[in-house]
Amino acid sequence: MQLKNDLLLRAARGEKTERTPVWLMRQAGRILPEYRAVRSSVSGFKELAETPELAAEVTIQPVDILDVDAAIIFSDILVVPEAMGLPYDMIEQRGPSFPKTIQSLADVEELRSVDAHLELEYVYEAIRITKKALNGRVPLLGFAGAPWTILAYMVEGHGSKTFSKARKMLYTEPQLAHLLLQKITETTIKYLKAQVVAGANLVQIFDSWAGILSPAQYREFSGPYINQICAAITEVPVTVFAKGAFFALPDFANYPCSVVGLDWNMDIATSRQAVGPDKSLQGNLDPCALYGSFDQIKAETHKMLQAFGPDRHIANLGHGVYPDTAPDKVRCFVESVKEYRHQPE
């Protein structure tokens, strides 16, 4: 199907665009009353994500309401460990919790990997329903967690400021960590390929806990596995978003990904230089900027766009939109991107 708005895909491929495309991480939900209405009709987050018709509905809401240039499928990075045999609960106000964690070689060997992605048919069905309903209006994005971030939850069992149990494994049982990372990687590749078959136009790899590793550990326990995934997904552009890992940007220059996401702590000019001329960048307005006045949001957005320049940029926040952000402030950000025209330096 021919896309009516392919700005994001063209920007990802490095082609000229009439303006900078824009979407937001975590746009499907949280801030929108329309999302909360759908969410309240079911038992909670997991039931919503596992019900394809409802997941499709909330995926499309930000396209209708915020007029963003892409939809991202409503799901969670932790569906992968669950498909591998490690179920999780999503606890209101606290986040994910794994009743059982990975602690030994026996635990890793018990995990499914060869056919684990087949457990995620509800995600593929949500993509197919969304794709049909969008009818070519905008691209549909798929995603998965980076192997290190997934390992962090599987070993720790919940969110953490330090992920000290997961990081301990890297020091005390590095071979076990590599074994688990490889299993996660193989499942993730199959999962993302199935998303593409279902209709995803671009996929993003979220390495949410990249920044808690040292550069040396990141290069051993995260980067190579992301590189494997990028190399395996050849059908659509791939975005790598490694929060906090500014030190890894020169490495990403050599990965076969199309787009590198920046968080708001990463300097735009330095990052552009680090990843080189052959990658597009995504980001990176501070999500807290959307608490400002409309004039402030517009000014900050325009300043960001000017710094990125007119080419090879997808406008976004430097992380997910915060849940107490007013929808009209988010709309102001989107409109500020769309109205902006680059000035010569």
Write the SSE topology.
Layout: H1 7-13, H2 33-39, H3 45-49, H4 52-66, E1 71-72, H5 79-83, E2 89-91, E3 95-97, H6 105-110, H7 121-134, E4 140-145, H8 147-156, H9 164-172, H10 174-198, E5 202-207, H11 215-221, H12 223-232, E6 238-242, H13 249-252, E7 259-261, H14 268-275, E8 280-285, H15 294-308, E9 313-317, H16 327-339
Parallel strand pairs: 1-4, 4-5, 5-6, 6-7, 7-8, 8-9
Antiparallel strand pairs: 2-3
GO molecular function: uroporphyrinogen decarboxylase activity
Protein name: Uroporphyrinogen decarboxylase
Function: Catalyzes the decarboxylation of four acetate groups of uroporphyrinogen-III to yield coproporphyrinogen-III.
Q: Kindly report how far apart the N and C termini lie.
A: 39 Å
Q: Please count the helical segments.
A: 16
The number of distinct β-strands equals 9
Architecture (CATH level 2) name: Alpha-Beta Barrel
Q: Major sheet: order of its strands?
A: 1-4-5-6-7-8-9
